[in-house]
């Protein structure tokens, strides 16, 4: 019963098999209406709980649609409406949900909540984002890169801005998928040292470069994310904006990267803050393919966890 808690906690061969399956499942559905069931219905008879303690558009809709396409059923639950938000322990919640459903996807704040849920659940648990990581997003991002440019191995990915949860999952993926990662952002917002060290130990070439224009030279992929994440206190907004303004992804930065570079953003984006509309809507941007691929990548993750 494998969980999907983080990319670096999942065997590399399994990650690669999931990626191949995500591509194949997407190709098999090309042009079909979204509600058309997948021919093989691998999740027939399965019940999946989707628990959200933070807002979500993409994660909520892509998991729900993905499960339904594969013949399963979903329960979309808000953590606040559950006893979980009112004092019931995570361990007891895990034991109870495991009696009703075959898999739990959770988006939460502290990573410890995810880990405790996984420890006490008797069904697989998928990480739908914590304050620390967002592995489903990076599976979709790698699928998107491969669609446009072929294998990501040996390619240069440049993360611009806050060294946040999405950045951490890129770091966690760099070793297993064999790409180079350059972080460019202000020192106070560097990614967690433990993730940088682990990525290097996993064989990844990880660089930190304060000058965004130098960082993007020769990039195959430039990535941005919000300057203020859902778990960041609102009081940090002004300071973060001042720190991060030099790292905005705009036409000048993409020109420095070169025409070969793709642009990605997990969304939701704040137009004219971390990225300009000219880049988001420009020829190098693949942001909506990236959003679509949440669906296909997560369907492969669901199948992996349920062994179907
Ligand atoms: N990218 C992402 O996880 O989006 P949502 O917050 O809308 O789920
Ligand atoms: N870093 C962002 C990602 C949202 C999908 C956040 O955690 O709010």
Summarize the structure.
By secondary structure, the protein is of the alpha/beta class.
Written description of the protein model:
The longest helix has 20 residues, at 287-306. The strands form two sheets. A five-stranded parallel sheet has the order 7-6-5-8-9, covered by helices on one side. Helix content is 42%, strand content 13%. It is built from twelve helices and nine strands. The protein folds into two domains: 7-134 and 293-306, Aspartate/ornithine carbamoyltransferase (Rossmann fold); 135-290, Aspartate/ornithine carbamoyltransferase (Rossmann fold). It has helices at 12-28, 58-69, 90-100, 111-120, 135-149, 165-177, 193-201, 212-215, 237-244, 251-257, 277-280, 287-306; strands at 47-52, 73-78, 103-107, 125-127, 156-160, 180-184, 206-208, 221-224, 262-265.
Task: For this entry, give a set of tags.
308 residues, alpha/beta, Rossmann fold, 2 domains, 5-stranded parallel sheet, 4-stranded parallel sheet, 13% strand, binds norvaline
Name the shape in a single word.
globular
Secondary structure: number of strands = 9
- What portion of residues belong to β-strands? 5-15%
Q: Write the element-wise H/E pattern from the N-terminal end onward.
A: HEHEHEHEHEHEHEHEHHEHH
Biggest sheet features: 5 strands, parallel
Ligand inventory: phosphoric acid mono(formamide)ester, norvaline
Rg is 19 Å
CATH class of the largest domain: Alpha Beta
- The order of strands across the largest sheet is 7-6-5-8-9
GO molecular function: amino acid binding; ornithine carbamoyltransferase activity
Subcellular location: Cytoplasm
Domain Aspartate/ornithine carbamoyltransferase carbamoyl-P binding: 3-147
Binding site for L-ornithine: 165, 225, 229-230
């Amino acid at each position: 019963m494998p969980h999907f808690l983080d990319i670096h906690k999942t065997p590399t061969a399994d990650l690669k098999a999931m990626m191949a399956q995500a591509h194949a499942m997407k190709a098999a559905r090309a042009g079909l209406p979204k509600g058309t069931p997948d021919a093989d219905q691998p999740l027939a008879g399965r019940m999946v709980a989707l628990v959200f303690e933070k807002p979500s558009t993409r994660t909520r809709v892509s998991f729900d649609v993905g499960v339904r396409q594969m013949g399963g059923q979903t329960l979309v639950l808000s953590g606040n409406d559950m006893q979980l938000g009112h004092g019931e322990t995570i361990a007891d919640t895990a034991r109870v949900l495991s009696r009703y459903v075959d898999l739990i996807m959770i988006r939460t704040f502290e990573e410890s909540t995810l880990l405790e849920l996984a420890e006490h659940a008797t069904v697989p648990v998928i990480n739908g984002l914590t304050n620390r990581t967002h592995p489903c997003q990076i599976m979709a991002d790698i699928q998107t890169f491969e669609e446009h440019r072929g294998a990501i191995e040996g390619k240069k990915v440049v993360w611009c801005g806050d060294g946040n949860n999405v950045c951490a999952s890129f770091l966690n993926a760099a070793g297993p998928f064999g790409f180079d990662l350059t972080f460019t952002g202000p020192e106070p917002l560097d990614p967690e040292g433990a993730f940088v060290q682990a990525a290097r130990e996993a064989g990844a070439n990880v660089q930190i470069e304060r000058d965004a224009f130098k960082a993007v030279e020769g990039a195959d992929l430039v990535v941005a994310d919000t300057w203020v994440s859902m778990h960041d206190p609102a009081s940090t907004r002004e300071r973060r904006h001042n720190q991060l303004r030099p790292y905005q992804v705009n036409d000048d930065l993409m020109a420095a990267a070169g025409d070969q570079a793709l642009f990605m953003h997990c969304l939701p984006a704040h137009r004219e803050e971390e990225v300009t509309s000219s880049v988001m809507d420009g020829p190098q941007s693949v942001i909506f393919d990236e959003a679509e691929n949440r669906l296909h990548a997560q369907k492969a993750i669901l199948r992996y966890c349920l062994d179907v």
